[in-house]
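Hey,
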Amino acid sequence: MTNKKVYFTDWSNIIWAVSDISKMIGSISTSAEEGRMLTWSNEKTGEYWLYLIACDSGKPHFLIYEDRAPTKKMYAVIGYCDYHEHEVEISAYESQGKEVQQ
């Protein structure tokens, strides 16, 4: 099996999304996968609630964990994603820890 590296030809969608989101909700908490995944955490709990994944197409994909997210910041991100037509996934957890997709 060969490790194939993917190189984006246009990072502009990712760069604008990271810049705009960081202005709205604060600095990035961590990065992984050579910068292809970025996270933001809840300032009160320290839990990661927002993930930005750079898709192979160079477009951002957002994953929000609703139960960990600060409400106003979460809605700001959802509105941003809707306006800019970025993919966004919202996931919630029940009290028993079972994941529920919304």
